[in-house]
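Ops channel
N.P.: pipeline sanity check, posting one input/output pair.
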């Protein structure tokens, strides 16, 4: 199969392209800047010209309606593997185009798109342990650690919190939203926002903050507003959990900007932004405990950060996600927490127990090396479109 791979600068490009080629596919990378996800005449003309060379499919990480439209007109497949959630472009009416084969890492999202009539498959995100092994070397029992507890991720200080931008919000609505955020912050593995933020509250928010994605989209504003709340839960959760941990343990954070409530805690050290390919895996390998706090907009699936940590041979404590038991056993190949107090207790326990940590991280590494390898997952992807 001859595949035109569209890249927007995503981290996974090198691993995906090299694996597709290793599996016997011919791949050419297309990197023209896309100005508008739905319609871009200059981009479309360039893509159409490129496709004249005779491709069987266009491939991208995440979904771009304009790629689907061009692929449909060209009579070829459009393959998209979703790595971000939310991904508003999946609300485009183009998702039901016959040319589409959409692969989703979140099972809840998969079920929603399937109900809309899209051609979808559930496929978790992958990790290239061969590349990471070459960078880091083999796992060793006598590890030398540079960090006690590490968190690599964003606190979303700028441009992420849409609720903060809403002007003239009534005090009763603001108070209700704060209550929903506080309630959801106590629960992992179950989305309460859908139930608590009902249609009455949706209509209240619509009156002061209307949203319109355009005629090419079919999405209820309710889900957009609920994702705003889920994002707010994520922001609060990360700030509060890191602050709580920093009061008890040394915590290394790799982020562009620490929130104020964390910056004044002596135990919390900001490593700044780290490069995904070379620096981030070293932090995962050299930390006694790595932390994952999944974006609450990901309702069931396993985020890329989880496979990144385990693939680098790191020990991981993560929040509970419904899809975790599909692959992992708690306390054997990964550790998950179900409350703030539980997280603090787990960190205290595993910082003291080197042998237990070592066995769990080795088991976790062995699982992702096999079940989450790009060779296996892209093999599933290719087999499914050839059926």
């Amino acid at each position: 199969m001859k595949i035109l791979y569209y890249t927007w600068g995503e981290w996974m490009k090198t691993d995906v392209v090299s694996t597709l080629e290793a599996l016997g596919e011919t791949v050419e990378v297309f990197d023209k800047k896309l100005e508008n996800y739905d319609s871009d005449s200059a981009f479309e003309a360039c893509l159409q010209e490129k496709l004249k060379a005779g491709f069987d499919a266009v491939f991208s990480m995440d979904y771009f309606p304009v790629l689907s439209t061009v692929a449909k007109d060209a009579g070829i497949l459009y393959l998209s593997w979703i790595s971000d959630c939310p991904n508003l472009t999946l609300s485009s009416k183009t998702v039901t185009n016959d040319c589409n084969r959409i692969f989703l890492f979140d099972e809840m999202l998969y079920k929603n798109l399937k109900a809309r009539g899209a051609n979808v498959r559930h496929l978790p995100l992958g990790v290239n342990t061969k590349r990471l092994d070459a960078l880091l070397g083999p796992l060793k029992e006598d590890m030398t650690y540079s960090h006690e507890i590490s968190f690599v991720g964003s606190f979303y200080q700028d441009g992420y919190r849409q609720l903060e931008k809403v002007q003239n919000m009534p005090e009763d609505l603001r108070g209700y939203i704060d209550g929903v955020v506080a309630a959801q912050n106590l629960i992992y593995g179950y989305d309460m926002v859908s139930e608590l933020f009902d249609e009455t509250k949706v209509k209240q928010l619509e009156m002061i903050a209307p949203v319109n994605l355009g005629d090419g989209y079919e999405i209820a504003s309710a889900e957009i507003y609920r994702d705003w709340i889920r994002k707010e839960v994520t922001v609060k959760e990360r700030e509060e959990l890191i602050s709580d941990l920093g009061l008890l343990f040394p915590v290394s954070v790799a982020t562009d900007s620490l929130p104020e409530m964390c910056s004044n805690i002596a135990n919390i050290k900001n490593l700044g932004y780290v490069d995904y390919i070379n620096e981030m895996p070293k932090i995962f390998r050299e930390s006694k405990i790595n932390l994952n706090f999944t974006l609450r907009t990901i309702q069931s699936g396993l985020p890329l950060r989880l496979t990144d940590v385990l693939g680098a041979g790191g020990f991981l404590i993560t929040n509970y996600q419904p899809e975790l038991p599909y692959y992992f056993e708690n306390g054997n190949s990964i550790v998950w927490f179900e409350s703030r107090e539980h997280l603090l207790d787990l960190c205290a326990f595993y910082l003291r127990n080197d042998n237990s940590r070592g066995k769990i991280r080795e088991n976790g590494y062995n699982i992702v090396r096999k079940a989450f390898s790009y060779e296996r997952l892209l093999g599933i992807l290719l087999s499914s479109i050839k059926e």
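N.P.: looks fine end to end. Residues 129-162+233-371 form a domain with the Rossmann fold fold (CATH 3.40.50.2000).
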